[in-house]
Amino acid sequence: MKKLGLIAGGGSLPVEIARHCERAGRPLFVIRLKGFAGDGLGDYAGAEVGLAELGKCFKALKRAGCEAVCLAGNVARPDFATLMPDMRGLAVIPAAIVAARKGDDALLRLLVSEFEKEGFVVEGAHEVMDDLGLPAGPLGRVTPSEAAAGDVARALEVARHIGKHDIGQGAVVCDGLVLAVEAQEGTDAMLARVAELPTAVRGRPDAPRGVLAKAPKPIQETRVDMPTIGLATIEAVARAGLAGIVGEAGRLLVLDREAVIALADELGLFVLGVEPETP
Asked: Which of the residues 27, 82, 93, 268 has the least number of beta carbons within 10 Å of its own beta carbon?
């Protein structure tokens, strides 16, 4: 079992991975990214590293004996002018600026390649924890109604389409009408926008209609940027008056799975996994 270096950003995913490694007896070393990693990782062996301190990061991982790394958690796109890189980071900055102009996926692929150049195996969160992925079929007790079936298909179609253009991962559709697509603001902010729309075009918590779909981009580096839902997503979907969520089986991460199932069942929302498109 390779010792894992967890490159931890914000949110609950890095904490879930750390706890999983602890339960599984997998050796772990945590790189806590300054300004992003949460307090829940403070008790694990590790180091605090700035976003552009690649040299410090690589040295810490190698000293700790890590052979594999997992990049997990929320990290905002950096303002390159304010970064404080070390020498190894400084060497990568020009290429990172060029990659960032091509989109987030190009930037992430560059970052993965830098870890691979240093000899690390890059593992996705879904590879470290094989029960993170959304299975095919309903996740809880609630299944989509016949009326929702058209929105399920349409929302997935739109999410996949915007992914082909590296725009975002999510879309909301109600009665065939596209209410929102996700760009840089993220899923929660997109759902907050939907909640502000007139109820004539969307559902209500007591009469839900419409579907949130999330799908990875075709060019996406899924080892470091897989679409994700959690408790906050379920709550935001309910506030927006939607009936449920659909994603591709094995290609959508579900954080706090048991709690997500319990809340979705309580609120009468479906969480559905469908088979990915064949190339």
From this structure: 82
C-alpha span between 244 and 267 (Å, rounded): 10
Strands (E), the chain: 4-8, 28-33, 46-49, 68-72, 121-122, 137-138, 170-174, 177-181, 211-214, 228-229, 244-248, 253-254, 270-274
Task: Report the largest interatomic distance among the alpha carbons of the chain, rounded to a whole angstrom.
Answer: 59
Q: How confident is the model at residue 101 (pLDDT cuts 50, 70, 90)?
A: confident
pLDDT of 106 > 90? The answer is no
* Best CA proximity match to 252, nearest among 271, 279, 269: 271
Token code pair at residue 122: 């890059």
Q: What is the pLDDT of residues 58-91, one digit of tens each?
A: 999 999 999 999 999 988 888 888 889 999 999 9
d(CA 14, CA 9): 7
Closest CA to 265 of 240, 242, 234: 234
Say how far apart CA 21 and CA 4 lie, in whole Å.
9
CB burial string 2-31: b at 16+ within 10 A, e below: ebbbbbbbbbbbbbbbbebbeeeebebbbb
Q: Which two tokens stand for residue 217?
A: 């981009």
Q: Mean pLDDT of all residues in the chain?
A: 92
Q: CA separation (Å) from 23 to 9, 67, 109, 146, 190?
A: 21, 19, 30, 41, 35
How confident is the model at residue 279, as a pLDDT? 61
The token duo for 21 is 């490694």
pLDDT > 90: percent of the chain: 74
Tokens 């379920």 belong to which residue? 234
Q: Which position has the token pair 């870890």?
A: 115
